[in-house]
Design brief:
The protein has one domain (about 20-215, about 245-295): Aldolase class I (TIM Barrel, Alpha-Beta Barrel). Helix content is about 30%, strand content about 10%. The chain is built from eleven helices and eight strands. Strands 6-5-4-3-2-1-7-8 form an eight-stranded mixed sheet. Helix 3 links the parallel strand 2 and strand 3. The longest helix is centred in the middle third of the chain and has 16 residues, at about 185-200. It is globular and about 50 Å long.
Length: about 325
């Protein structure tokens, strides 16, 4: 795989400072039941990295110490972590809003038969990856048969009340481009998804997020292999919109890796670009338990153009 960090480090991207941390996004590990071509985490079935019980405890303590309102669980497939459900239970008992970044096919994996019921019981928001509403495109990007499993997963979620307008059972779909181009209008694409999925599969959902592919890990390596890295970066730079700076996710989100180390965002985590704190090479979540991060400078590189290009992009979809 071609690493791209050396192509991104030298940057003219403007400085950004933090606001109050509202969301703690925790990567529970890189193990996944899929290996998607666009995956910026490089997750897959053979990955063994998983967060320890000790670091799970640190996550819980940090949420309490900093009064974090949103716990955003990701991976890999976060549901494969042995303590996923216990962590959800604890966060729910403390009235925290929990988000599960779900790949949908996990719902058909062994020992996950009751997962949807569990998520609904604890009012977990499901943010589910469905890069396209056409079977051919999804299977090309994520593997043969993935689309069919995803559709069955969405129908199961619908059957338990997800995607029906209940604020406690939110179902959001996530779309990303098939190749090196910017996502289309989130608003117009949501209309297309809504119409097609309802008419063909009787599926409903609450929101659609469009996310720009980042020039890192698998996607970045593909760009390098095909000689399209600089072309794609120029596309992102040319589409830069200064008004997106105030809304980028790194201003209100803190990203934690499976070892408990802290980053300004999930993409920085994958590039090994740690949170700036006391000039340390890496900062552990336990070291900032009672530290106010507001006004801290965010670590930036050229990939940040991906979040600010066009309509903008974040874990919460388009920015404008």
């Amino acid at each position: 795989m071609h690493e791209t960090i050396h192509l991104l480090e030298k940057t003219d991207f403007p400085n950004i400072t933090r606001s109050k941390v509202e969301t703690l996004q925790v990567n529970l590990g890189y193990q996944c039941n899929q290996s998607c071509t666009h995956c910026h985490v490089d997750a897959g079935p053979n990955r063994k990295e998983m967060m320890s019980a000790e670091n799970i405890d640190v996550v819980v303590d940090y949420m309490q110490a900093q009064d974090i309102g949103i716990l955003d669980l990701t991976g890999g497939a976060p549901e494969l972590h042995s303590q996923f459900r216990e962590l959800v239970k604890i966060a729910h008992s403390k009235s925290r809003h929990v988000i599960d970044r779900c790949n949908l096919t996990i719902l058909e994996e062994p020992h996950q038969e009751d997962l949807v019921e569990f998520l609904a019981q604890h009012k977990v928001e499901v943010v589910a990856s469905l890069p396209c509403y056409l079977e051919e495109n999804v299977d090309k990007q994520r593997g043969k048969g993935v689309f069919g499993k995803s559709i069955r997963g969405l129908q199961l979620l619908n059957s338990l009340g997800y995607g029906k307008g209940d604020k406690n059972l939110k179902l959001t779909l996530v779309s990303n481009p098939q190749g090196p181009q910017l996502p289309p209008s989130q608003e117009s694409l949501q209309k297309d998804y809504t119409k097609f999925l309802a008419e063909k599969y009787d599926i409903s959902f609450d929101h659609l997020f469009t996310i720009t592919n980042m020039p890192i890990k698998r996607f970045g390596s593909m760009l390098v292999s095909k000689g399209k890295f600089e072309e794609y970066m120029q596309l992102l730079r040319d589409a830069y919109s200064a008004e997106n700076i105030q809304s980028v996710m790194c201003r209100t989100m803190l990203s934690v890796d499976w070892q408990g180390y802290v980053y300004d965002c999930d993409f920085n985590q994958m590039l090994g670009m740690s949170l700036s704190h006391n000039d340390q090479i890496r900062t552990h979540l336990s070291e900032i338990m009672n530290i106010n991060l507001e006004q801290n400078e965010i670590t930036v590189a050229d990939h940040c153009y991906g979040c600010t290009a066009g309509q903008g992009s974040s874990c919460g979809g388009a920015l404008n």
